[in-house]
Amino acid sequence: MNGFASDLTHATYESPDIVALYARPDGLQKPEETLLSWLRPSLGSMDMLDIGVGGGRTTRHFAPLVRSYLGVDYSSAMIARCHEEFPAFRFAVADARRLEPVLDESCDLVLFSYNGIDHLDVHERGMALGEMRRVLRPGGLMVYSSHNANYLPAIIERFRFRIHSNLRETLRSLKWSSVFWAKNGLLQYRMPLAAGRVHDGTHSFRSSALYYIRPDLGVAELRRLGMVDISCAGNESRDFVPGDDPGLAHDPNPWIYYVSRKPERT
Question: What residues does the Methyltransferase domain cover (predicted)?
Answer without folding.
Answer: 49-140
